[in-house]
């Protein structure tokens, strides 16, 4: 994909180059963003603003006639993990793709947390040793640690990868063997019995449990207030999904992937929308709510079908969020669906802005006028993290074309103050309030009203 994109670039940051770097065909969940620097000093990126490419890494000699691919890393900052970059250089022109390696951390935490440490060493002509580390480094100092090593000679670089496992994995295995171990003579029969039990007890599988939860109306909306930092007043809420199963409140991380992969998220969201419509009757008329969607809602017109059946309710107070992390495959249908809903008065936002690969393209093709700045960028305030320049670029780009900005995940007053200095006043985060059920929201509003009266 990268080689195909390179062939399309003219390396002059012209309108043609902008079309290429923002072409949805090159979107990937494994790439955070890309940028190019021409041999004339011009720079452009998928973020809409130039990146200081030389500040990210020493790009080596890019004046060679021969096309060269290499690996590099974002700057090493204490307490943080570097990201890998793919670099291309030829005739003084340079391109970089910053890779999204967040998936590695979740893989290293399976099947147990703190069980693994991963280390990759890349060697090329520009970087004698480029080190990427993930997981629990303390495992290296354990006496009985074991490692698996693999060496590969690639086109751009040679690399040696090592996966270490230590005491935590041994304890995990011993614990599970103690609980689940059975004599080998019974193992095969146990597997057959287990398979039969799973088939007969489908309703206890995650999919079956979700379906039962839908029937029993166990999925509930929680509301996290969005505050105007100038007045300290609530202006709206993001609706966050929770699963109330008996006395247990289940967070979305434990079931949302299964709900999305099975298509059950559509039924869940439809239920949530109907509950939210009832809850809106209890909230001040000036307050709005924002509900998360998946691409399927608009690509298959599920959302308009539901709202039409309800006679287009609360169009001025109900907004919808589309994540940038997962690409929209059919932009043409999505554009038609969103245009229809906007004509009815509904508004849309792009969630997790800057973490994916299509945010600015969505603004252009879907005509969305509101974005939510991801917590990943808000956390860089008052740090030397390279992503802080991305935060400033996002804010400047949005303000230049009069796009509404909401900052997610703010946890400190210093973050709120910095955002206010940049003209961002709509704040969502623990600094003001956590997500809560409708009853708690009503109590909070009554308490604030009582304080105001007194």
| Domain module tally | 3
* Top CATH class of the largest domain: Alpha Beta
Strand content: 25-35%
Q: Which blocks of ≥5 consecutive residues have pLDDT under 50? A: 55-60
- Mean pLDDT over the residues: 84
CATH structural fold name of the largest domain: TIM Barrel
How many E-type strands?
18
- Outline the biggest β-sheet: 8 strands, mixed, barrel
Name of the CATH architecture of the largest domain: Alpha-Beta Barrel
Helical coverage, percent range: 25-40%
- Structural class of the secondary structure composition? alpha/beta
Fourth CATH level, the homologous superfamily of the largest domain: EAL domain
Shape: globular
N-to-C CA distance: 63 Å
What's the alpha carbon Rg, rounded to whole Å?
A: 25 Å
Question: Order of strands side by side in the largest beta sheet?
Answer: 10-11-13-14-15-16-17-18
| Number of continuous helical runs | 17
């Amino acid at each position: 994909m990268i080689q195909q994109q390179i062939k399309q670039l003219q390396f002059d940051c012209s309108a043609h180059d902008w079309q290429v770097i923002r072409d949805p065909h090159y979107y990937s969940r494994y790439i955070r963003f890309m940028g190019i620097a021409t041999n004339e000093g011009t720079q452009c990126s998928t973020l809409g603003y130039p990146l200081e490419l030389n500040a990210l890494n020493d790009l080596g000699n890019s004046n060679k006639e021969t096309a060269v691919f290499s690996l590099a890393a974002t700057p090493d900052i204490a307490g943080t993990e570097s990201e890998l970059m793919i670099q291309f250089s030829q005739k003084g022109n340079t391109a970089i793709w910053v890779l999204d390696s967040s998936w590695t951390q979740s893989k290293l935490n399976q099947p147990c947390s703190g069980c693994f440490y991963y280390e990759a060493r890349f060697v090329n002509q520009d970087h004698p040793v480029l080190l990427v580390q993930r997981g629990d480094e303390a495992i290296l100092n354990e006496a009985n640690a074991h490692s698996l090593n693999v060496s590969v000679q690639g086109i751009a670089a040679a690399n040696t990868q090592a996966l270490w496992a230590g005491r935590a994995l041994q304890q995990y295995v011993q614990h599970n063997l103690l609980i689940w171990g059975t004599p080998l003579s019974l193992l095969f029969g146990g597997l057959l019995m287990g398979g039969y039990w799973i088939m007969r007890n489908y309703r206890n599988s995650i999919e079956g449990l979700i379906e039962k939860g839908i029937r029993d109306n166990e999925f509930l909306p929680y509301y996290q207030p969005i505050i105007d930092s100038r007045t300290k007043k609530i202006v709206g809420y993001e609706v966050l999904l929770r699963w109330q199963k008996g006395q247990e409140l289940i967070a979305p991380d434990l079931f949302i992937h299964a709900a999305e992969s099975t298509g059950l998220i559509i039924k869940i969201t439809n239920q949530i929308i109907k509950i939210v419509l009832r809850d809106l009757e209890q909230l001040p008329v000036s307050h709005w709510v924002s509900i998360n969607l998946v691409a399927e809602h608009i690509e298959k017109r599920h959302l308009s079908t539901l709202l039409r059946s309800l006679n287009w309710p609360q169009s001025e107070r109900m907004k919808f969020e589309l994540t940038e992390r997962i690409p929209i495959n059919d932009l043409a249908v999505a554009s038609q669906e969103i245009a229809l809903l906007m004509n009815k008065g509904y508004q849309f936002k792009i969630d997790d802005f800057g973490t994916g690969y299509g945010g600015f393209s969505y603004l252009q093709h879907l005509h969305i006028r509101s974005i939510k700045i991801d917590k990943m960028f808000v956390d860089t305030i008052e740090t030397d993290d390279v992503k802080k320049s991305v935060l400033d670029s996002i804010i400047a780009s949005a303000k230049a074309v009069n796009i509404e900005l909401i900052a997610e995940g703010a946890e400190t007053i210093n973050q709120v103050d910095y955002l206010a200095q940049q003209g961002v006043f709509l704040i969502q985060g623990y600094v003001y309030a956590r997500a809560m059920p409708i009853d708690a929201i009503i109590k909070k509003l009554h308490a604030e009203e009582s304080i105001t009266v007194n």
